[in-house]
C-alpha cells in the first residue's frame, strides 16, 4: 500500500500494482532472503538512505528501475561486482524471482527496494550521488491517452539528473519507437544532461537480451538504447 507521502508525490503513477500468485520458490526467497537483501520504500525512515552502511562497503551505486523478473538484473549485478547494485520494483513475484536468480549466481552486491522509484529518488537519495540509473523496457503505455503515465517525463529527467554524480549515466532502452523518440526529446531538453551519442546509442554487448526484446524482434519492433550523462 502506498502511504500518504507517496500519494502526494505522485498523482499519476507509471505502473500498475499487478497481483499474481508467487511460486513456492519465490515465497521462500521472500521468507529467507528478503530480510537481508530488501527494504520497502514506503517503510524507509525519513531522510537519505545510507547505501554504504546497507551494503557494508563504499562503492559506486547503480540504480535499476523496474527489474521485472530479474532475468537481466541478476546477470548485470553479477557482471559488475565493483558496483553497489540497487534494483527497484513494485511486482512481488518479480522481486522473489530476482532473489532466486541472484542466489543461484552467488551475487553479493545486490540490494532490492520494493516500491515507487520516484519516491525513492525524491526522498531517500542524496543529490549528486549515483554512479548511474538504468531504465530498461519500462511500461510503454502505448495508447495515446495513457502517455501521461509514462515514467520518462521532463520532471523525471530532471530528478534523475539531480541524483547523478557528475559524469554519471542515465541509460534507457525501449522497443516502442514513439517512446524512444519521447525519451530522446525529453532528455535532450534537460540542461543537466548530455547525450553521449548523436541520437541512439549502439546496443551494448554487455546488456543481456530480454524477453521483451525477443518479443519485439518477433513482432517487428526495433529496440533503441539511449545513454545520457550528467554534465560536470
TrEMBL record:
Gene behind the chain: trmB
SUPFAM superfamilies linked to this entry: S-adenosyl-L-methionine-dependent methyltransferases
Binding site for substrate: 143, 175, 210-213
Catalysis: reaction(s): guanosine(46) in tRNA + S-adenosyl-L-methionine = N(7)-methylguanosine(46) in tRNA + S-adenosyl-L-homocysteine
Described function: Catalyzes the formation of N(7)-methylguanine at position 46 (m7G46) in tRNA.
Family designation: Belongs to the class I-like SAM-binding methyltransferase superfamily. TrmB family.
Pathway membership: tRNA modification; N(7)-methylguanine-tRNA biosynthesis
Protein name as it appears in the record: tRNA (guanine-N(7)-)-methyltransferase
Annotated binding of S-adenosyl-L-methionine, by residue: 64, 89, 116, 139
PROSITE patterns in the record: SAM_MT_TRMB (PS51625)
Xref: InterPro entries: SAM-dependent_MTases_sf, tRNA_(Gua-N-7)_MeTrfase_Trmb, tRNA_methyltr_TrmB_bact
UniProt-listed Gene3D superfamilies: Vaccinia Virus protein VP39 (3.40.50.150)
